[in-house]
Amino acid sequence: MKSIIALSIAAFVALGAPALAGDSLRGLAPADEYFGRFNLSILGVTNTIHDAGTRLDSGADPRALVNGPLYFATDALRDWEQKYPTDPWIPKELLALENVYLRLPGNDGTRLAAHTEAWLVADFPSTSYADQGRKQLADAAFAAAAPAIAAPAIAVPAVAAPGAPVNVAPPPSAWERFAALRAPLAPR
């Protein structure tokens, strides 16, 4: 009798678990799906943004990073959001992208960060990431108002409409974009 009850419970769990898991995973992008023209996975987007920030902190050319890895990540994020608009990982990545843009020298980084923050607030207004992004942008504006040593600026066009890719002119060559992706990371 005990074995029949145990088998019944095991069968119920085995049949009910996938249905329950499906509800909790609804809206999440699969880890093995690729997004954008450059076919970045979810992990690829995360790593690209993180590595671009690390390379920027190590002194890499900001223009090559904006036109290379950060453009690739932005393109993939737009495609990801179009296919999975309720995925809760997207606002986290938008906040990380905004954070990297805020580390660019000059006002151009602030402009790109403001564009990313506008995207974050427009599409994910009730998330904690939108609140964090607003605070980061306000802190950066306050810091920019304080007198500081002028940083070399990179040429960035005016903020584009949401959905339009942000390009920095003039675009780097394919070798410069490749070099930005392959630049060595600073030791930890």
Shape: globular
According to DSSP, the number of beta strands is 0
Instruction: Give a quick account of the main beta sheet: strands, pairing sense, barrel closure.
Output: none
- Helices and strands, in order, run as HHHHHHHH
- Beta percentage is under 5%
Instruction: Please give the domain count.
Output: 1
Arithmetic mean of pLDDT: 79
Which ranges are low-confidence, i.e. pLDDT below 50, for 5 or more consecutive residues? 155-160
Assembly type of the chains comes to single chain
Instruction: Report the helical percentage.
Output: 55-70%
List the helices and strands and how they pair.
Blueprint: H1 2-24, H2 42-57, H3 62-67, H4 69-83, H5 89-102, H6 107-123, H7 128-145, H8 174-182
Helix pairs in contact: 2-4, 2-5, 4-5, 5-6, 5-7, 6-7
List keywords for this structure.
188 residues; 63% helix; single chain; mainly alpha; globular
Structure description:
It contains eight helices and no strands. With 188 residues, it is an all-alpha fold. It has one domain. Helix 2 packs parallel to helix 5 and helix 6 runs antiparallel to helix 7.
Q: Could you give a quick summary of the protein structure above?
A:
This protein has 188 residues and is an all-alpha fold. The protein has helices spanning 2-24, 42-57, 62-67, 69-83, 89-102, 107-123, 128-145, 174-182. The protein has one domain (32-182).
